[in-house]
Amino acid sequence: MIKVNIDGQEITLEKPMTILAAAQRAGIKIPTLCYDKQLEPFGGCRLCLVEIERVPKLMASCTVNVTDGMVVRTQTEKVKKARKAQLEFLLINHPLDCPVCDKAGECDLQDLVAQYGAHEGRFLEGKRKHPESFRDPIIVRNMERCITCTRCVRMCDGVQGAFAITVTGRGNHSFVEPFTGGEYKCEYCGNCLTVCPVGAIMSKLHRHSYRPWYVEKEIKTICGFCAVGCTLIAQTRGKDIIRTMPKHGLGINDGILCVRGRFGYDYRSGEGRITTPLIRKDSGELEPASWETAIDYAARRLADIKERHGVASIGGIGSGRCTNEDNYMLQKLIRYVIGSNNMDSSARFAFAPAQKYLERMFGQGVTANLIPGIANADGVIVFGGDPTAINPILGVQCRIARRKGAKVIVIGAPAGLKGFVDYKLEPVVGCEEVVLRAIVKGVVDKKGLSGENAYIENKIKKLMSPDDETIERVGVAVADIAKAVDNILKMKSPVVVIGPEAVHTSSASLNLFLLGVINYVLNGRIFLLSEKANYQGLLDMGCAPDVVPGGRPIELDIIEHKFQDLLGSKTPEEHGMNLYEMIDAAKNGKLKALYVMGDNPLFNYPDREHIEDAFNKIDFLIVQDISLNDTVKMADVVFPANSWLEKDGTFINLGRSLQRLRKALSMDGCWDDWKIVAEVAKKLGMKKSYESSKDVWEEIRKVSPLYRDVDYVGLDEQALTWPYMGEPIRGLEGDFKVEGLEQVLGNVAKGSDGFMGLTNPVLMLERPLFHSGSMSGMSKALLSIYGAPYFKISKTLALRYGFKEGDKVRVIMEKGEIDASAQIDVNMQDGVVYLSNIFEGVGYMGVVGYKVDAVVGSLVITNNNIVDIVRVED
Amino acid sequence: MKKVLLKNIENPDSALLTEYMRVGGYKNLKSAVKEMTPRDIIDDVKESGLRGRGGAGFPTGMKWQFASMDPKFPKYLVCNADEGEPGTFKDRPILEKNPHLLIEGMVIAAYALQCSRGYIYLRGEYPQAKVILESAIDEAYKKGFLGDDILKRHFKFNLSVYQGAGAYICGEETALIESLEGRRGQPRIKPPFPVNAGLWGRPTIVNNVETFANIPLIIEIGPKSYAAIGNTACPGPKLFSVSGCVKRPGVYELPMGTTLKEIVYEHCGGLVDGRTLKGIIPGGLSTPILTPDKIDCAMDFVNLPKAGSQLGSGAVMVFDDSVCLVKVYERAMKFFEHESCGKCTPCREGTGWMRNILGRIECGRATAEDVDTLIDVANNISGATFCPLGDGAAGVVLAFVNNYRDEIDYHIKYKKCC
Ligand SMILES: Cc1cc2nc3c(=O)[nH]c(=O)nc-3n(C[C@H](O)[C@H](O)[C@H](O)COP(=O)(O)O)c2cc1C
Ligand code: SF4
Ligand code: SF4
Ligand code: SF4
Ligand code: SF4
Ligand code: FES
């Protein structure tokens, strides 16, 4: 017990802490500038000076710990004079350009001077000069205003882990600059400007367009750009978003955001946003229509097709961008109003099958893990993608874990973890399986098996290890594998981070099994990366042919038919088609009508020709989206939908935390997805009506026991994690039968199954930090950082094909050609070229093919061998 | 008194190992390693009363004991050879003329403190010393005084030189450690102190060049005889670097507690004929200036504070009546402004402000109000800074204004020097 006296108040503390922390606890306010609760203490601004009895000098309360019996005074004349003095010093070189500074009104310096003085300047000489920098796409730097508190630097180094900026110069010529000078060229997370107490680092987005007191509303909601599910505060005025901000103490992200969450909000008003329903007329043109007409028309055509071709001819595609309520409603329409199990989504490509596979190994809920918990792991194993790009804040957690002492082992080359990796095993792209196999074999041989799960262990026993020659041939040193194994064996609470690329290859089944084994042997936690914000939610809502809301397997539901009364009909018994099957069925004329909500298959799914062909054959295509994308352009009816900033509802993140989304503002002309679907459903005979997303949620609670005790009010307070307050549906453990796996386990590929030995490189998908699919491509801010597609390519390859950085090149594939500029990356392997799938007309997916993995059911990219690369003249 | 620290330096080859050994060098290392336990050495250093020669005068034995009590290993030994305090050039003769004395002292310390790795953090502006030190280190390795098996006692100590880039603040021990780690030189929050968490977070003992150079003597004559040299409260031989208006400026090795008068008038030959004494800075630019009436003060850690100043690095700067002290302090403040690391507000902003005001006084553009502002600014810096650099800058201005107000007023009134 430590007893201290601050300003006459006796405070008893259980553990040592700074004087500042003790004072805050007692409700005593000490002014600060360089202190920030999420950062390491610095002690530079000297604003927090206090008097301590029997200590002659004033002490900085943010760096001095209390000791038993300490008597502290924070309000004496001496302290007040010192505070005023520091502020006077700070104003010496501060430009005092408050009238044109966006920070005015929420500037710590301004507020403190108002409160403590000095109100009159005694400094007669000129102030230092430093030109304002506009060189960065979204950040403006005005270093004349900088008070050298280093909050930004400590944020960038100590939390974000980007190490992009530093204080340069000395004394009163200290400025914050990127190491190389000039442009930041960093991750543009904006976390430095979030913590800057003055207007030295500012957002360009709303420069000179607002004052902090213009903010009319602050809405706490969840970022819709990925499945981390960061909490952000959207500040609005009228119909505009002023900005989105993180807040310390709130949500998974606890005071930080990534570039998408921080600056991507202007996607709303980006190019191509649709705000009125459209109907394809006889002329073949899409023309504006009223909501009533469009809904009527859609319902009529669906009823007609159902009548003529039966329920099996109708299907729906849900969306990882939409809320649980939206997805629930779509599956209700398809499954309970129309009567078909043809319900799926693009989660089918990787997230859904990977999760299902892992659940077959470990039982339900294996991916229900808290993202902030990663920071406390003592080991991080990453496979199949770069967490810092796909799910940036999860990536930051991996960095924090490393900083706290975790060993980080990566297989592949996640660029964003550079500098945070203990063992990087980077085999030739496509041969990762060899390395994983060797690691798992090593770990199992040394650690032995516990006997806990005979089914898994029987399979492990069949696992063969690649010989040293094979390992070396795929480009990894055998000794490195041994080191990685030793480190993995020391891990007590590791996390296994699995990216989508783990299952987009023909070794999907083996990869997942092996990652599962690591998890099994070490008793770790699995995180399945997911680009879309709500893949987990849409699965839980029944947007899959084989599950109904609550994640219940359809077989169980058919036996019980529990919710017939509530839903108006029984769960249909016929087999439903999954996404691949629906596409094929469309192509051969069996699927006549498709309801696409919040997805753009033409651009987002591989093999454009095939998809286009299939969609051309569909009689009636309904597309509900926010922008005029490729698929919308083919639709018969188009419904303009609200996007995540305009919606109420819930999302479930990749760690299965259920969180509440709140509408920040509305978009004229657009409706919530659930509402559009519900209106169509009503015309088709649905009895129930809903006033708001809350009503939809209330129904979900009744249908699924999992959410029985979860209401919006409770969710307002805090996010909940699976199995929420309800009961999980168990009964899935046991042997997990995976056909073909056993043969694979006993049969080591000699490396030639990968892309090795191919004379031509392969085209791989780039999943960039600055974008996450089509929505981010509407954001001017994000486009200002990454605005045009490029091929990322190694120097050797560029030389081989005869071009240089910035040249326009054409990559010729079996399934098409694509033109973009070349960007040379010296850290890259020679056998691969990267291209993103962000920019319409230049997407990766359009020029590759696919097949379905026989065991996992994931999408395996094919036809990705590059035929040739040629330079093209502009 | 027989010279110890500057022994043999008239010999042009004094830096060579052979010459050092010819006058008894490394004898003390041998007896320390062979006859004493690490504990014995620490106890002796404590008993000797040796206080650090880097400026703060912290008892060396106590520092060593703290470090040896910390269970963490490895431990690091660092020699502070940054010698950046204006007026100070007392470490230089050791570094350039007697490098083996420093090495011997460091190896004994390493043995006592069980450090296997040491660094000499050398001032960027001492290129010659770097060459000499490195060749001395080479020699010591070859003779087995450094390396993995020193004197065949299974005792390992590796030593190398790391050169700073010219920042005064890097003489402050925690900034020095930051710089050694490859970071921007800025002081760290204390506690934890380097003895517990220094270089790479490990226990680290930082001592001044001269401090290490005293160690062999303590081994040689024993702590009791050592304690009898000079002032018993802070004994030992001391190097004084004297500059300014004296006939024979230079580095003098004298017992601690020698009076200013003896230094200036006996050893340095007094002032230039016809000049009178105006003031003396006794311990380097960051120590307060003394007026001529303090000439009888003994130069040590006890008596100088009583006279209103500090021993600091023992750099005596003598000013006679030909010197304009306003000009001196304007220049001094330029130094502090330039060397302020920028970490804390009062020093970063205040030193420049004081330089501005002093500049205005010097060139005759100041008013009486400016002097009040100067005093207030200095008072506002005092006691509020993160490290002693800023504090020192304010302290010397206050001492100057208090003691030489007339001279300042004359400048303001007549717009010229008196
Ligand atoms: C601004 C500043 C500059 C310093 N410069 C030096 C220096 O150049 N050399 C030195 O030995 N100590 C210097 N010191 C003192 C060191 O911080 C430290 O106290 C000393 O190296 C400890 O060694 P000692 O105990 O042997 O004196 C400086 C301190 C401050 C605050
Ligand atoms: S935007 Fe993010 S990465 Fe860039 S400098 Fe700021 S904190 Fe660092
Ligand atoms: S830019 Fe802002 S956060 Fe960074 S040091 Fe300057 S004032 Fe502090
Ligand atoms: S995109 Fe993902 S990581 Fe970034 S702010 Fe949004 S939810 Fe967080
Ligand atoms: S007083 Fe402050 S600004 Fe000056 S050198 Fe020390 S830490 Fe740096
Ligand atoms: S808040 Fe304590 S020194 Fe800045």
What's this model, at a glance?
Chain A has 874 residues and is α/β, with parallel strands linked by helices. Helices cover 30% and strands 18% of the residues of chain A.
What does this 3D model show about the protein?
The complex is a heterodimer of chains A (874) and B (418). Chain A is α/β, with parallel strands linked by helices and 874 residues long. Chain A has five domains: 2-75, Ubiquitin-like (UB roll) (Roll); 98-107 and 123-269, 2-Layer Sandwich (Alpha-Beta Plaits); 278-345 and 543-710, Rossmann fold, CATH 3.40.50.740; 351-528, Dimethylsulfoxide Reductase, domain 2, CATH 3.40.228; 758-871, Barwin-like endoglucanases (Beta Barrel), CATH 2.40.40.20. Helix content of chain A is 30%, strand content 18%. Chain A contains 28 helices and 37 strands. In chain A, the strands form ten sheets. Chain A has a seven-stranded mixed β-sheet with strand order 14-13-26-25-24-15-16, with helices on both faces. Chain A has a six-stranded mixed β-sheet with strand order 30-34-31-33-32-37. In chain A, strand 1 and strand 2 (9-13) form a beta hairpin. Chain A is globular. Chain B is an alpha/beta fold and 418 residues long. Chain B folds into three domains: 17-227, NADH-ubiquinone oxidoreductase 51kDa subunit (Rossmann fold); 237-320, Roll (Ubiquitin-like (UB roll)), CATH 3.10.20; 325-414, NADH-ubiquinone oxidoreductase 51kDa subunit, iron-sulphur binding domain (de novo design (two linked rop proteins)), CATH 1.20.1440. Chain B has helices spanning 17-22, 27-35, 38-48, 60-69, 91-97, 99-113, 127-143, 173-180, 209-227, 260-267, 303-307, 325-339, 345-362, 368-381, 388-403, 405-414; strands at 76-81, 117-122, 147-150, 155-163, 204-208, 237-244, 250-255, 277-281, 315-320. In chain B, helix 6 crosses helix 9 (209-227). The longest helix of chain B has 19 residues, at 209-227. Chain B starts with 16 loop residues before the first helix and ends with a helix. Chain A binds chain B through residues 41-47, 49, 56-58, 60, 63, 81-82, 85-86, 88-90, 92-93, 122-125, 147-148, 166-167, 169-174, and chain B through 167, 184, 189, 337-346, 348-353, 356, 360, 373, 380, 383-386. The complex binds flavin mononucleotide, iron/sulfur cluster (4 copies) and FE2/S2 (inorganic) cluster (FES).
